[in-house]
């Protein structure tokens, strides 16, 4: 390789994690173009009018109210609709575990789908201010509800968009898994945070405010491409004030969070097209030392042998380059 070729092993801001930034030569944005969504609406079970094809909704957001379906009656003309996943990973009444070779526990928990809009081809960047705010409010409500249940240790809230990001249905939706165990990644992270003198995320804010990895800021949030981006165009959304959980968010904060998510997704789609992505909420309801954040990871390749072997990701686009490019589409 010529000496101009860049390859860096970068360490995570504060965790014992690494990524390798090794930009592929000549790789263009169009090389990342993602999969095409099927636009068929005739048999989409998430579309309005098809409510009978899903389990009864546990929460229906309609005209400022939160309602529930009954077994026999499905509410129509909703704004957001939440119901149990048809193929849940965890269930409310799992069979008792007996006599296992190693450790096992019952697969107790909840697995919910949040259909973000009744309209099939509408995406988050198309949402009005009211629609995005309602989605953030629904996130808060649903997370709070499951978090308050006995035996639930963590509520994972995430969105898979596009087939290669794990979505089996094209109609825009998020998912929530309420778990009876604490995810090891968060356990490790909070341990590291507790052993730090000051909040590592607050430190990131100070350092990244003026950096060439800052993509966007509104009154309450900043959006950065992290120094240790695992994948091309990875973005982190951080509240500027130290706040640990969405349950503490005022409507104003929810509005600015919605804005940060919407701007990020719009800029991504304007820059690199309809790329599949995941976004994940990170928060701890009972630990004020945690710093709430949302991570967006476009799916440009699949984790392969090296990543699985080492936990180290090879990223072909430096975050500074990603921001430089994304900024040209920031209005
Ligand atoms: Zn649909
Ligand atoms: Zn903080």
Q: Return the structural class.
A: alpha+beta
Bound chemical compounds = zinc ion
CATH architecture: 2-Layer Sandwich
The CA-CA distance between the termini, in Å, is 38 Å
CATH fourth-tier homologous superfamily? HIT-like
Count of DSSP H/I helices = 6
Which fold name corresponds to the CATH topology?
Answer: HIT family, subunit A
Strand order of the largest sheet: 4-3-5-6-8-7-12-13-11-10-9
Mean pLDDT: 92
Major beta sheet summary: 11 strands, antiparallel
Unreliable sequence segments: none
Which oligomeric state applies? single chain
Q: How many individual domains?
A: 1
Could you name the CATH class? Alpha Beta
Shape: globular
Radius of gyration: 20 Å
Helix content: 10-25%
Q: List how many beta strands DSSP finds.
A: 14
Task: Give a structural overview.
The protein has 331 residues and is an alpha+beta fold. The protein has a single domain, classed as HIT family, subunit A (2-Layer Sandwich), CATH 3.30.428. Helix content is 23%, strand content 21%. The protein has 6 helices and 14 strands. The strands form 2 sheets. Strands 4-3-5-6-8-7-12-13-11-10-9 form an 11-stranded antiparallel β-sheet, sandwiched between helices. The protein has a 3-stranded mixed β-sheet with strand order 1-2-14. Strand 9 and strand 10 form a beta hairpin. Helix 1 packs across helix 4. It starts with 7 loop residues before the first strand and ends with a helix. The site of one zinc ion has 6 residues, from loops. Pfam families: DUF4921 (PF16268).
């Amino acid at each position: 390789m010529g000496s101009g070729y860049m390859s860096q092993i970068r360490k995570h801001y504060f965790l014992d994690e690494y990524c390798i930034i090794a930009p592929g030569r000549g790789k263009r944005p169009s090389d990342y173009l993602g999969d095409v969504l099927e636009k068929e609406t005739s048999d989409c079970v998430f579309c309005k009018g098809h409510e009978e094809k899903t389990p009864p909704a546990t929460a229906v957001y309609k005209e400022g109210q939160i309602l529930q379906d009954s077994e026999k009656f499905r509410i129509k003309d909703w704004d957001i609709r939440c119901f149990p996943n048809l193929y849940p990973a965890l269930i409310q009444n799992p069979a008792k575990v007996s006599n296992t070779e190693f450790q096992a526990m019952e697969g107790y928990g909840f697995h919910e789908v949040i259909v973000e809009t009744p309209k099939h081809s509408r995406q988050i960047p198309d949402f009005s201010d009211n629609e995005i705010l309602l989605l953030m409010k629904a996130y808060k409500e649903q997370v709070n509800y499951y978090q308050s249940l006995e035996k639930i240790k963590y509520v994972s809230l995430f969105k898979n968009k596009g087939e290669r990001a794990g979505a089996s249905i094209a109609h825009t939706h998020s998912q929530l898994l309420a778990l009876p165990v604490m995810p090891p990644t968060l356990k490790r992270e909070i341990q590291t945070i507790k052993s730090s003198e000051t909040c590592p995320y607050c430190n990131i804010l100070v350092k990244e405010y003026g950096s060439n990895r800052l993509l966007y800021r509104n009154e309450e949030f900043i959006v950065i491409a992290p120094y240790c981006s695992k994948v091309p165009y990875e973005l982190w959304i951080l509240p500027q004030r130290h706040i640990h959980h969405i349950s503490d968010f005022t409507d104003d904060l929810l509005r600015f969070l919605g804005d940060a998510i919407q701007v990020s997704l719009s800029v991504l789609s304007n820059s690199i097209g309809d790329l599949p992505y995941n976004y994940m909420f990170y928060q701890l309801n009972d630990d004020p030392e945690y710093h709430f954040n949302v991570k967006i990871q476009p799916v440009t390749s699949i984790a392969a042998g090296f990543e699985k072997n080492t936990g180290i990701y090879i990223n072909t686009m430096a975050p500074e380059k990603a921001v430089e490019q994304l900024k040209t589409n920031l209005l």
